[in-house]
Amino acid sequence: MRCFWDEQQRLHAPATEFFNGALHPAAEHPGRVDSILSPIGPTETPQDHGLEPILAAHDPAYVEFLRTAHAEWLAAGRAGDALPYAFPVQRRKMALDRIDARLGRYSYDTCTPIGPGTWEAGYWAAQTGLSALAAVQAGANAFALTRPPGHHAGPDYMGGYSYLNTAAVCALSAGQRAAILDVDYHHGNGTQDILAERQGIHFASIHADPRHDYPFFWGHADESGGNLLNLPLPRGTDWRSYEPALVRSLEWLSEGSPELLIVSFGADTYAGDPISHFALETGDYTRMARHIAELGLPTLIVMEGGYAIEALGANVANFLSGF
């Protein structure tokens, strides 16, 4: 399998995030990369495919906000990473001049800071995915080692450590009937919002029940229909309980006769993940991948979550080995 990575993705290096009433060290940090690179072996440097594919998935005003937000934050006399603190209850278009207001307009949580290198890292994560997509379309399954993650980023909002939605960008750029399977612990709400009702793209997500887990307001079972399938599972889910949901999702995706599969792979379903609550073990990721490979589709794998640093590389490598 061809693997792609760009060093500019290290430029996003948040120090803290705010949740449950307190500041915590950022769970999504560049150290995640080092735990993955050695186990997966050599990687290829992506090419620059420009802004056009990104703008197919994201609102231009939101993209411009990401490009300029940290500079505006500094110009306002602030230091460190930019974080929002006020959010609109109703999302409506309005003129917002102050960076604090615009941070709230374009985000939905306080866990997703913008630093001096956030735009460059997110941009090159998307380019890494697009270059891996080109490899898939040339005949080889490919893995895009992407960070920050992307599947929580919507058309015009960031959240869940996500700024640009690489999986959605690639699906819309593929020019083929695509299926996206999201196996991260958390629901891919941004992917769902971008792709809902899009002809020729089906999205299935297996994730923690949002009644109890982030992102709470998306991913409930009754949001299924049309080109969407949501399969929420309870905390403590192990492989024996996870496998039937995986089989169901793959059968549903195959009904759409896809020509290309994109997997949003999160290793935060691991039993030892510090911010998640499933119970998959390292060997289960090979079993998961073998099921997915049975679809027989050209497959692009995009990295999403996974925060148990000591086991992350082995979990990723085991997943890739299943192909």
Concise description?
With 323 residues, the chain is an alpha/beta fold. Helix content is 35%, strand content 14%.
Structure description:
The protein has 323 residues and is α/β, with parallel strands linked by helices. The chain has a single domain (2-16, 24-58, 117-321), classed as Arginase, Chain A (3-Layer(aba) Sandwich), CATH 3.40.800. Helices cover 35% and strands 14% of the residues. The chain has 10 helices and 9 strands. The protein has a 7-stranded parallel beta sheet with strand order 1-4-9-8-5-6-7, sandwiched between helices. The protein has a two-stranded antiparallel ribbon with strand order 2-3. The radius of gyration is 18 Å and the shape is globular.
Which key features would you list for this structure?
alpha/beta; single chain
Mean pLDDT: 96
**Domains (count):** 1
The helix fraction, in percent, is 25-40%
The strand count comes to 9
Secondary structure class reads alpha/beta
First CA to last CA: what distance?
Answer: 8 Å
Sketch the topology as an H/E string, one letter per element: EEEHHHHHEHEHEEHEHEH
Report low-confidence residues grouped into runs of 5 or more: none
Using only C-alpha atoms, the radius of gyration works out to: 18 Å
Main sheet characteristics: 7 strands, parallel
CATH homologous superfamily grouping: Histone deacetylase domain
